[in-house]
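Worked example 4.2. Below are the chains of a multi-component assembly; read each line carefully before continuing.
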Amino acid sequence: MASDSDSDGGFVTFGTPLEPLEEDEPLRKPVPLHEQTVKDEKGRYQRFHGAFTGGFSAGYFNTVGTKEGWTPATFVSSRQQKAGRQNARPEDFMDEEDLGDHGIAPRQITTTADFASGRKDVIRDKARAITSLSAPIPGDTVLEDLVAPARSSMGVELLRKMGWKDGQGVGPRVKRRLCKQRADSATRAFGSASPPNGSSESQDEEDGEFLPENVTFAPKDVTPIDFTPKVDLHGLGYRGLNPLAALRGGPGAGHINLFTMDSDRTNSLFGEDRKGHRRRGGVAGQGFGVGAMEDDDEDIYHRDIMSNYDTVLGGEEPGDGLYGWTAPQQYNRTKKDHSKDAAYLGKILEGFTLASDKLETKTIFPPPNLPRDFRPVHYFRPVVDLSSVSPMVAQALQTSRGHMAQEEPSKGGRHQLDSAQRRELLGEATLQGPSSVFDLLKVEDRERLSGLRRPSSDTSSGPRQPTPGEARAAVVAAGVAAAAARASAQKALSSRFAPQAEQQQQEALSVWSGPTAQAQTGQTFKPFERTPHKQARYDLYIDQLKQGDRDALELSLDPTMTEWERGRERDEFVRAALLYKPSSSSLSCRFTRGKQDDGVEADTVEVTRDQENDVDDKQAAVKMKMFGKLTRDTFEWHPDNLLCKRFNIPDPYPGSGFVGMPKVKRDKFSVFNFLTVSESPTASASPAPQGVKPSEPGKRSRWDVSGQAGDKERKEKDPVSEFLSVARIEASGSGPEASTTDGPTTDPTVEPDTEQKDEEEEEEEEEESRPSMDLFKAIFVSSSDEKSSSSSEGESEEEEEEKEEGVRSKAGTGPQISNQLNVNTTQPAPPVSAIPSQHPDVVFKTPSGPAAVPPPRDQEMEEEEFGPRLPPPSSTLTVERRPSLTPSAKDDKHKKKCKEKHKAKKHGKNKKDKKQKKKHKRHKHKGKQKKSSRKEESSDSSSEGSDGNSQDDGEEGGGVSTEELLRRLKSIRGKNLQ
Amino acid sequence: MSFPQPKPEVPQLPQNLLRTIDCQQGAVRAVRFNADGNYLLSCGSDKSLKLWSVSRGTLLKTYSGHGYEVLDADGSYDNSQLCSCSSDKTVILWDVATGQVTRKLRGHAGKVNCVQFNEEATVILSGSIDGTVRCWDTRSRKFDPIQILDEAQDGVSSLKVSEHELLTGSVDGRVRRYDLRMGQLHVDFINSPITCVCFSADGQCTLTSSLDSTVRLLDKSTGEMLGEYTGHKMKGYKLDCCLSSKDTHVLSCSEDGHVYCWDLVEGSLMLKLPVGKAVVQSLSFHPSETRLLTAMEGRVQVWGAEPEETEEDVVVVQQEKA
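Applying the procedure described above to all two chains together yields the following structure tokens:
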């Protein structure tokens, strides 16, 4: 191909070649990126725009030719070349780049059409059209354009020499008639569309009228049979849009025939050539308007008409000329049909022939004979529901219809029978059991119920003593009933009713207008479900009963009914209302509701109740060490979707909209839930001192018994749950105690640090005896009072304590406690002294330096804690065990506690000792309690059982004679519990 | 086989004191190995969390930012992050290298007893005395927990995470196992406040220690008790228990200053390790080797199967500390 390099002609060189490396040349610095620019051969920068934005920029940043603007053209006088170039060619505006090899108008040497293959080659065009059809892009002949045969074949040359012309068939020339017939069919075949083969033939045809007889014509060209296999996915005969035909425009292009049979297809192959005569230059066709060179009468606003389309595949009839005419073709079977036609007497319509086979006559049967007494009238019998109508009416209706009563059961079906009826029908003996629920009740209960049923005005509610709420409801209902009775007596509307019926009515009213009945709506039993009208009336009646309407019955009855019917219905309604009265009024206390009807709240109640029930079994199982099924519960639990994602786990419940457990209430930790939990006798939250100790509930009883006046703040140290349970026991959820759950946690924190020690001592001392309820109240109702009192106590601590002791022993917390106290006094000193050891740390060391590791807030914080405690910080333990400690341990402690304070170490220790002694003196008997309570403070002090624990721990902490102490304590405690 | 089976090696017990680290951060509330066992974390009651090298006993980093004593800590699998929980009701996510607080997660209503990363450190799970376990997302910037597990009726004292399970022990005496894959919650009733729960290394058993001074080995799938280990004293304090790295022994802290070590199968007491006079509060077993950490008061002690260091080293270390 074209090339610009001399040496190797087949290659095209792009870009600038690298300069050959010289031997001694030092390595050049790489060109920085911003200097790597592209320049054209004139040295102008070429800025690359990117493949989709137009390649290299032109001009000066795509604007003007140069930085200075357009270079002005130098004036050239055109006087001499006026007649010269008049019209500018595109090449005039191109520069050398455009005309170059890779420009838009490359200048290269090509073979022109004149030299291509002699003359205009129809064969080649034909082949080209065929290939265009089978080409990958229909209508485009890419390969054909690239590979161009330089010359036509030798055969064609020979044919031409023999006089063959392009477009003619090969063969002997034919007479005109044959030719004409063929042309005829051709014109017919194309219908209204302009004949595509309008070339030589049609022209010949047109003036063929005037041609002499002896003129022969060349045979029609035989079109090559298209053997191209069908590889596309088009329908049969569909050839797609030929861009050559579609874009060419012209009058014939109005309708593009997309469907061709093979013959048509080959026809259309020549279409472009044949139409070529008519083609005018320029753009034509619909949408372009009428050009100056076009005829005005051309249909520019193209309307497609259906006759352009073939209605039949193939289109071309075999030559009979009867397009669409489907009548029998007489001329096709002229010979044999004539005999038949002659046999038929009469005129045969034009275009019709006699039928070859006769139609069978349809046999018509006569209608059946009617009986003589048949009357063509249908009588619709009224459907009577016996339950909705009184028996007399029903009977009357039945007799009027001529039916007897035995038909009724079969009509209603066996489902409408009750058990007694079925029993009778089957002839079974009656069952021996009680016939009604009331038989199961005790006599007094029955009386009570009957009393409830006959609330004779005001006196009825007397004997009945159910739950208070029920009683209240009954009283209210009775009052309403009394008023109702009076009113209805005045009205005397239903004078014909017995007073008993009246009473029943009032009773129903009282029952249904009660508050419990108001609560449950929508779940009333529908006794008259079979007769919607009646049920609607009954519903109305019930609604009005609920609203306390006195004459609900009268209002709800159908006024159009007879008095007698209304009376029946009245009775029924009252009876039904009494029968299906809201169960909560009398019996509901004995039954729990179904689970399905319960809301979310009830669900959670269920769950907790289950767990509580199970706990006993579980405890027993744990006692027997039978872990496994007995102690395991498995629940459905929905993890959050995001959590599953984070754990790389598919969501087990992909569709579920909630997380957590389905049945557990959200606000599980509301005060009241908490109360119920802590109330459970298992007290699982508390660390049971002796493992599974059966005396847990006993402890509670001691709680209550020991509630005496003497003790005050010990209760601060109590865990919240304990307090709550006590508060709940005392005042069933109504008092301020229930709401002040935060009390115990907040209170201690506001205590001043300096008084903390004193308070703690007091608390410790009061640990043993249980406080009274008013003390709880006193503390939790107002914390400020408590604070002030405690501060005052700080000064007069000892006196108060003495007093308290006295009070306590007097108030009779029991001899056990005093006994216990005595025991405490008899305890050896070391544990006692060990206990307060932390306080000296706090009290004495805090001022002296940063060594106090546990901040004073320690105790406050830990008071609110639950669960197992944390061991005390090391210092206390070391001090506790001081007698047995090695010097190194002491050093340890001191290193830790008072790093900078080496000098004061000994001093502090002495002080501590003194302090301890002093304390010991002061609260001889309280040492143990102090110890335990301090432990509680220091760690968690929350749970109920921790009291016992703390004592035990205290014993352990004592280090000396712990075993004996423990034993003694336990015996004391056991006594206490009893 | 022609060759006789090699005798199974007698499992070693960490009975030799390798070194003592005086952490100088108050009482050490918890001591934990990191994921590979080369480092240890000590949670101090002076609000600090410290990172130590186990082999040398040197202090590597101190993480301060808690408002109250640190109760538990855990390291991520890649040692890049730490999480710790504290009595100040917060959970803190730390960057190990810088010691900065990556995230401070508030939401618990009470002190947070236990904290754990999940396997990929994408979630922090924390159990608090408010009875909830909160699942914190470390990937997002949200400060709300992904999910709050409030099934416990009392404080959650201990918590462990496995690949798809979450084991919590609560003071209400129940061990809860949340199976995320199955979407189920299994509750085992123990009847005594749980102080510590563990998974066994094979993932088939759970170990629970409770305040009735008993450590129980429960079958994970059925809840049946496989072993019961007693003898130690755990009545009031929240002490740890653990399994040895190869599930051969059960170890538990005790309030009498010892670490008790039982044979897992036989339940017999194999070792009563005298740690000190006070309560052994926390212990942690090396993930692969026979090495044990115990925390008592302000000291952390490292125990190994055989003595590998001389006493002088320990002394030197202590003097350095001092």
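Take a moment to check your reading of the output against the notes. Residues 311-317 of chain B have pLDDT under 50 and may be disordered. Residues 245 and 316 of chain B are 30 Å apart (CA to CA).
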